[in-house]
Amino acid sequence: MRPTAATSALTVADTPSTDNSAARTTEAAPSTDDSAQPTDATAPSTGEAAQPTSEAAAADGEGAPAGPPAGDDESRTGGAGGSDSAEGGAEAGARVGAGRPPVPYLRWTLTALSAALIHICLQMPNTLGNLKATEFLRLPAEAIIGAALLLSLPRRLRVITAATAGAALGALTALNILDIGYNEYLGRHFNIILDWELLDDAQSYLKDSLGSTTTTLLTIGVILLVVLLISLTALATTHIANTLARHKTTASKAALIAGTVWITCTALGLQAAGVPLAADHTAGILKVHAHRALDTLRDEAAFAKDARSDTFGNTPPAQLVPGLRGKDVLFTFIESYGRSALEDPLIAPGVTSTLDTDTKALADAGFHAKSGWLTSATYGGSSWLGHSTTLSGLWIDNQQRYRTVMASDHLSLTKVFQKTGDWDTVGVMPGVQKTWPEQQYYGLDKVYNAFQLGYKGPKFSWSTMPDQYALEAFQRQVHGKKRDKPLMAEIILTSSHQPWAPLPEMVGWNDLGDGSLFKPIQQAGTDPSDIISDSTRSKQEYGKSISYSITSLTQWLERYGTDDTVLVFLGDHQPMARVSGTKASRDVPISIVAKDPKILDKITNWNWTDGLQPAPNAPVWKMSSFRDRFLTAYGSTPHPTN
Question: What kind and span of H or E run contains 139?
């Protein structure tokens, strides 16, 4: 029996176009009914005609399109050009609809998702404040230029270009997210030249805050997400490139219209909710990173020259700090002790109350203080930049500058005392848990790290031991021993390091022992994960940690200070933006405390505030200016090096 035209069309429709059996079926059973031949050139029934006959089919590099263009439903079901009844055509169409997925809809859904991903990546901001819907309503110039470029390329080069550009866009998006994190925690953008090594410190911080297992899982998850993002953007741009090529004429017209609209919006300054409609955001981000990298490289050479110039570099030992001879001088840094601790309404009441109480207690013990403000070179973290800026007299706001000055002969404030030969110099560094080559630059004869203070108690998140214990260990191992010379010490207190949970509590000084008594306090403390994403609780716990550190230090001074003790203590930087606020200054408090009135008389012209709490309008100096001001105040004679 001779096959009907409907049967022949159904055979072709039910068989994938890449399967040659379709061609064999139609050749084996040709129809003599001319009216049964397809009238639509895009849906041939012969095996030969089933091969790609247009640029659109070739664009995807497939034997045939994955699905016919929208509007070709009749040719796929055999409903047009058949001589059989309408009932036969309807039956064939129903069978086709049941046997094949709606490929066109899947393809256009994939195209829409790919376009959305690319658009989001092109418009991804690098600050949390700009992460809002209006940022994604803009028309990106990079998309228009990219479409025009891809349309002009042959297939192989188009695919390579699209995949490479997509992967680069994914990497840039990951960098923008990293930028957001750096802005939130450190108050600055990520430096692609210098900051990669800080990621290791971030991982160590997470281990101490959340535990090793959680940190390992988070690290693996972040790496997988970055790889997935880069892969997806590469696939998305490749898919969009092939889609554009299949519809080259339409795509070319659309690109031309979009370009015209972009130019018009730029010329007229059109905006939506205060945001320009025409954007070149990605190009701008790349330009910023390029300039930042070039500035970093130039800065390295310029700063190396600055580090070789020193106002007191050639000063003879006998002419250095004569006004402090015979005094025990202690330079103490309190972690994250910033201006917000004294001025933020959610933090300040507890901290200022502590300062007032401790000022009175010190006065009763015969000590007096003057306080001012310094503007730190760092913010939210990287404490070593604040320490080195204060003690070197150089502005050290990045890792490259830090490495440069640590390798230089520039005279640090602490090394001044070693250079005179009249002081024993030590460092108390409970946060140091490995080799610390900076000891030489700071001129410290001996350094007591986390493992040399005799502590047997638990860690309090990042902090290896409570400040009260570290100070008592300093008294027992150093300050309380008889010496032939006075003492100069650099002390770093760490209990106020984020995430501020769990926190230690003050205990009896005579009960400290080896620190084991802190175990139940640590176990009963707040879990870091409970406050790490809660701004209000973070502020509250931060304030408690600052009060604890100040109380530990002032009680130590009351208990063990002498007529010859001179204490300089200050913050190294403000806490991160989630606590200090996005518009917070970089100011930190600094105080000088002594019994001998001549010590404070020498800084009367500084106009600092009496007591431990600087007035809001007290002088504010750059942190890098403190070294020279201090050396000058206490009688050092400048002899510059060039």
Answer: strand 139-140
